[in-house]
Design the sequence.
C-alpha cells in the first residue's frame, strides 16, 4: 500500500475486486439479483393486501374470550334465542324540551325508514319515550360481518330525517363497535405513512446518504408486505384471529425490527468494506458478523412473543404467532434482501460518504480505539464503574416507584376510543333519561324451571332496574318478568311463551347503571355466584360480563406469562453467551428498565394525559415488547463484547464493544422508539399507552441501560461475568 509522508496509510476509495473469471463474475451478480427480484415479486403480491385486512379482522371482544368463559357460551347461544347474531344498537332521540306529538311522529317515520336499510335485521322497535318526556329510544339488530358499515348508514340516514330540535345518537354495542372500527381505519394509511416518513428522516440524518435509507426501508417494507400476505391468508383460513389492534402492532413491530436488524448489518458491512476491497468478500464478512446477533435477537423476540400462546385471551394468544411471523420475515429480509441490495451497490450505497478501503487504519484502531462521544462515555465508565452503575440503578429504582400509581384494572368500553365518539356521547345522554344499562342488558341463561327463581333473585339486586325474557310471541322479542311471572304489555292478553333452547331460557336484566361502569361489573360479580347457587348451571353474559371475563383473563395471563418470558429469554442468553452470570445481569437490568418505564408511564398517564386507567393487558404487552426488544440491544452489545474480550480481555472488551456498537445501537433504538411512538396516531387508548411505554422504555434501554448500566456492571465485575465458561478464567 502507498504511504503518505507522515507514515499514515493512504485510504483507497476505489471498489476494486480481485480478478475473477467472467462466469464467476456473472454468477456473483446473478444470485443477489434473483434474491432481490424474488423479494420484490412477493412484495408486489402482498402490497394490495394492506387495504384488505378488514375483510379478515374482527373487533368483537367476545370472539377473543376463552370458550369456557360464561360470556362466550352465552354469546354462542344468543343467535339461537334471538334468531340473529347481529349486534344490538340503541337509537336515542333527545331534545332540550319535552318531545311534541309532531316530533314523536317524525321519529316514528325515521325509524320506519331505518328498517328498510340493508343490514338492519328484524326491523326496528317502536320508539319508547322516557319518563321525563325529553327523549325516546328504539332498538335494532345491525351488522353481522358489516356492523360498522351498517351503523354508518344508520347515522347518515338519521342526520337527514330527524325532526327539528331533536338530536339522534346511535349507541349500544353496535355503536361502540362502529366507533372502534372507525378509529382503526387509519392503520392501513396514516400509521404506515407516519412510520415510514419518521424512519426515513432518522436514517437520512444517521447515514447522511440517499441510497442507504432507501435500501433499508425497501427491506423493511418487503418484510412487512410478505408477512401481511402470510397472515392474511392464515386469518382467511381461520388459523389465526386478526384484529385492528394486532394489525397495528404487526406493522410497527416488523418495520422496527427489520430496520434494527438492517442497521446492524449495515454497520458490519461498512466495517467489512474498510478491510476488504471486493464487495462480495465484504458481504460474506458482514454476514458472518451479523448472522449470530440477528438470529439470536430475532429468536429471543419470537420466543417472548410465543409465550403469549399460554394466554386465555385469544387476542393475546393470536398476537404471538402473528407477530412472530412478522419477526421471521424481518430477519430473513435483513439477512438476504439487504445483503443482496448492498452487494450490488457496493460502496455506492453509502454515497456521498463512501467507506474507504483502509486496512492499516483499521488495524491501528484495534490498538487505539477511535475518538468520539462513545470513547468519551467509555472513559467515564472506565474511571468510575461502580459509581456509574450504582447511580443509574438508584435513578431507575426511583422511576419504578411510580408503578404503584398505575391503574391497570380495566377501562370502560366508552373510554377505548380517544377523541370524539358518538356512541360514548349517546350513552351519556341515555343515562340521563333511561336506566344506564338500557340496550346492553345482562344476559342470563337458566333452565326453564328456574326462570322465576332467577328473575326474583335479579329483581332483588339494587343495580337491576328490570327483567325480561326472550320470547317469540311479542313484538319486541321480549316480555317483562315480574315477581308474578311473565307479563304481556297488552292488558288482558295472555303472556307470551318464553323461547326455549335445549331446555333453557334467556333472561335480560337491565341495569340502572351504565353497562361498562365499575358498578355494573360489581353487579355481575355478585350475581354470578348467587345465580349459580340458586339455579345450578346458570350462565351470565352480555357486554358487562364480557368485560369482566376479559379483565380476569388478562390478569391471569399477566401473572402467568411474565415469569415464563423471563425464563425463556434467560435460557436463550445463556446459550448465546455461554455463561450464567452475564445473562442473569442482563435480564435483571432489562426488568429494572421495564419497571422504570412503567412507573414513569403511570405518572404521565395520570398526571399529564388524565387517562381513565389502563387495560390489564397493557403491562403484559409492554413487558413482552420491552423485555424481548430491550434484550436485543444487550445482545448486540454483549456478543460484540464477548468477541472483543476473547482478543483483549473482558474490561478492555466491554469498552471496545461499547465504542464500536454505540452508534448503531443508538440509531436502532431511536428508530424502534419512533416506530412505536407512531402508534399514538391511532386514537385508541390501548395503543396510545403501549406506544408511550415501549417508546420511552426503548430509549431508556438505549441511552441509559445499554450505554451506562450494563457496561459499568460488566467492567466492575470483570471476567467473572462469563462464569462458568472458559472466558471466566481469563484475567481482566
Sequence:
Amino acid at each position: 500500500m502507498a504511504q503518505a509522508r507522515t507514515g499514515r496509510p493512504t485510504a483507497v476509495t476505489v471498489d476494486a475486486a480481485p480478478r475473477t473469471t467472467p462466469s464467476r463474475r456473472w454468477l456473483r451478480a446473478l444470485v443477489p439479483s434473483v434474491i432481490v427480484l424474488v423479494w420484490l415479486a412477493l412484495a408486489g403480491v402482498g402490497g394490495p393486501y394492506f387495504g384488505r385486512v378488514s375483510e379478515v379482522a374482527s373487533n368483537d371482544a367476545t370472539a377473543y374470550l376463552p370458550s369456557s368463559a360464561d360470556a362466550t357460551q352465552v354469546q354462542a347461544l344468543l343467535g339461537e334465542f334471538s334468531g340473529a347474531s347481529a349486534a344490538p344498537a340503541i337509537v336515542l332521540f333527545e331534545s332540550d324540551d319535552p318531545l311534541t306529538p309532531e316530533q314523536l311522529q317524525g321519529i316514528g317515520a325515521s325509524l320506519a325508514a331505518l328498517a328498510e336499510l340493508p343490514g338492519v335485521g328484524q326491523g326496528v322497535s317502536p320508539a319508547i319515550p322516557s319518563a321525563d318526556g325529553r327523549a325516546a329510544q328504539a332498538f335494532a339488530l345491525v351488522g353481522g360481518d358489516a356492523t360498522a358499515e351498517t351503523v354508518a348508514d344508520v347515522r347518515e340516514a338519521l342526520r337527514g330525517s330527524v325532526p327539528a330540535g331533536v338530536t339522534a345518537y346511535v349507541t349500544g354495542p353496535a355503536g361502540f363497535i362502529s366507533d372502534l372500527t372507525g378509529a382503526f381505519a387509519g392503520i392501513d394509511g396514516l400509521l404506515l405513512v407516519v412510520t415510514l416518513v419518521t424512519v426515513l428522516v432518522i436514517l437520512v440524518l444517521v447515514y447522511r446518504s440517499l441510497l442507504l435509507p432507501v435500501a433499508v426501508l425497501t427491506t423493511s417494507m418487503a418484510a412487512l408486505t410478505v408477512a401481511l400476505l402470510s397472515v392474511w391468508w392464515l386469518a382467511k383460513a381461520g388459523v389465526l384471529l386478526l384484529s385492528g389492534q394486532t394489525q397495528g402492532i404487526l406493522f410497527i413491530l416488523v418495520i422496527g425490527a427489520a430496520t434494527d436488524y438492517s442497521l446492524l448489518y449495515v454497520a458490519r458491512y461498512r466495517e467489512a468494506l474498510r478491510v476488504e476491497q471486493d464487495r462480495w468478500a465484504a458481504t460474506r464478512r458482514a454476514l458472518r458478523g451479523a448472522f449470530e446477533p440477528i438470529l439470536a435477537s430475532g429468536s429471543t423476540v419470537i420466543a417472548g412473543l410465543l409465550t403469549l400462546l399460554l394466554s386465555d385471551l385469544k387476542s393475546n394468544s393470536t398476537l404471538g404467532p402473528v407477530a412472530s411471523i412478522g419477526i421471521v420475515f424481518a430477519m430473513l429480509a435483513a439477512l438476504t434482501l439487504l445483503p443482496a441490495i448492498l452487494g450490488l451497490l457496493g460502496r455506492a450505497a453509502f454515497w456521498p460518504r463512501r467507506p474507504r478501503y483502509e486496512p492499516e487504519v483499521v488495524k491501528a484502531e484495534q490498538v487505539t480505539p477511535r475518538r468520539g462521544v462513545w470513547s468519551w462515555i467509555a472513559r467515564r465508565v472506565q474511571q468510575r464503574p461502580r459509581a456509574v452503575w450504582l447511580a443509574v440503578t438508584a435513578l431507575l429504582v426511583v422511576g419504578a416507584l411510580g408503578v404503584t400509581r398505575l391503574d391497570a384494572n380495566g377501562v370502560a368500553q366508552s373510554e377505548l376510543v380517544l377523541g370524539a365518539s358518538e356512541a360514548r356521547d349517546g350513552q351519556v345522554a341515555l343515562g340521563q333519561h333511561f336506566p344506564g344499562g338500557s340496550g346492553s342488558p345482562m344476559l342470563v341463561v337458566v333452565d326453564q324451571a328456574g326462570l322465576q327463581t332467577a328473575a326474583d333473585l335479579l329483581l332483588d339486586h339494587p343495580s337491576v332496574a328490570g327483567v325480561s325474557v326472550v320470547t317469540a310471541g311479542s313484538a319486541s322479542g321480549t316480555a317483562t318478568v315480574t315477581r308474578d311471572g311473565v307479563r304481556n304489555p297488552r292488558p288482558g292478553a295472555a303472556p307470551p311463551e318464553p323461547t326455549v333452547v335445549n331446555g333453557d331460557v334467556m333472561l335480560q336484566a337491565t341495569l340502572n347503571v351504565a353497562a361498562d361502569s365499575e358498578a355494573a361489573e360489581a353487579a355481575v360479580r355478585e350475581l354470578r355466584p348467587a345465580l349459580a347457587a340458586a339455579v345450578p348451571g346458570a350462565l351470565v353474559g352480555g357486554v358487562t360480563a364480557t368485560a369482566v371475563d376479559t379483565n380476569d383473563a388478562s390478569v391471569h395471563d399477566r401473572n402467568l406469562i411474565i415469569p415464563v418470558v423471563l425464563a425463556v429469554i434467560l435460557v436463550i442468553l445463556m446459550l448465546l453467551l455461554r455463561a450464567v452470570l452475564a445473562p442473569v445481569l442482563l435480564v435483571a437490568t432489562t426488568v429494572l428498565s421495564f419497571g422504570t418505564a412503567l412507573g414513569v408511564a403511570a405518572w404521565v398517564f395520570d398526571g399529564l394525559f388524565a387517562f381513565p386507567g389502563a387495560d390489564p393487558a397493557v403491562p403484559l404487552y409492554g413487558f413482552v415488547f420491552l423485555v424481548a426488544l430491550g434484550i436485543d440491544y444487550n445482545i448486540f452489545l454483549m456478543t460484540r463484547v464477548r468477541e472483543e474480550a476473547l482478543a483483549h480481555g473482558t474490561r478492555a472488551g466491554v469498552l471496545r464493544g461499547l465504542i464500536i456498537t454505540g452508534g448503531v445501537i443508538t440509531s436502532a433504538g431511536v428508530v424502534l422508539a419512533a416506530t412505536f411512538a407512531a402508534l399514538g396516531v391511532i386514537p385508541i387508548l390501548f395503543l396510545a399507552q403501549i406506544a408511550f411505554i415501549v417508546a420511552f422504555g426503548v430509549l431508556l434501554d438505549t441511552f441509559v441501560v445499554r450505554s451506562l448500566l450494563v457496561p459499568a456492571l460488566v467492567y466492575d465485575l470483570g471476567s467473572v461475568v462469563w462464569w462458568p465458561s472458559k472466558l471466566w478464567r481469563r484475567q481482566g
Notes: The mean pLDDT is 84. The chain has four domains: 1-45+188-363, 88-182, 370-417+554-732, 441-541. The CA atoms of residues 198 and 674 lie 7 Å apart.
